[in-house]
Amino acid sequence: MATSIRSAAAPSILLCIAVQILLFASNSSAVGNMLMAGETLLAGNCLSVGNYHLTMQHNCNLELYHGNKLTWESHTTGMGTKCFLYLQVNGELVIVSEGSTSPFIWMTGTGGSLHRFILVLQPDGNAVVYGSAVWSTGTMRAVHGNVASNRTTKSIP
């Protein structure tokens, strides 16, 4: 027989549990094909969807693969140590190096006001920062399967 908590402490306990869950989630790493604002993608980890993988390499290069084929990269190989990808709360996607005098070794240049942003690796192979789309790898595939573009794009508000 199940029992329920019927005391004045029950709402407080539930509130504490909810706060702990929110605090844990806000410092978490990326899972699946999305990176929320405030989350990190550590070296050796990737966002994946279908046959696409956006990987933060140990050499500090961010790379997007379709299968085994490299379709886009940040060109930051060897520019730092202990690097990780971080989506700031202003929508700026940055690669941070613990071994660099500069705060970021790469950035999208798209930071703006504080909103709810998310980096999504889409099923078409395009990695996009959404709030309103502020940055993408430009690697989405056309309906017939050809790569439409292989350049970094930046939208203008």
UniProtKB/TrEMBL annotation:
Organism of this sequence: Dendrobium thyrsiflorum
Gene3D superfamilies: Bulb-type lectin domain
Top-rank lineage group of the source organism: Eukaryota
Alphabetical keyword list: Signal
Keyword flag Metal-binding: no
A GO biological process held by the record: response to other organism
Record has Signal as a keyword: yes
Protein name: Bulb-type lectin domain-containing protein
Signal peptide residue numbers: 1-30
Stretches assigned to the Bulb-type lectin domain: 26-142
